Each structure stands twice: as structure tokens, then as C-alpha cells.
Amino acid sequence: MSKASLLQQKVAKLPEPIAAEVLDFLEFVTAKRQLESTQQLGKIGQLRGSFRGRLSSSEEFATRKSHEIRLEE
Quick check: pTM over 0.85? Predict the structure, then answer.
């Protein structure tokens, strides 16, 4: 039996005040997860922004690397 169907069965048997409390908790957990996800996306954006202009393409890297290899010869 899946967790969702087990949860549905148990919630169906709850008295209304307790069901309201469970619903409150579920909404709290959902909102918290959404906020954490949004914050994580913001951190990823900041990290990408901090490397803007510092990252090079594979072609540029290959050109620099071949130049370094020629210097070592």
C-alpha cells in the first residue's frame, strides 16, 4: 500500500478538529519545502553570477591548453 493511500485512510477516520490540525501541518511542510527550493535556486543563481565572465568555452580552453602543451615541448 502506498504512503498516500495509507494517509488517506487514516485521515478519513480522524475527528474534524484533528483533521484540521493535520491539514495545517501539511500546508506548513509544503510551504517550507517550497521556500527551501526557492532559496536553493537563488543560491545557484548567485553562484552562477559570481562566475560570469570567468568561465570559458571548451574551444577557448582547448586553445589555451594546446598553447601550454607547446610551451612544455
Answer: no
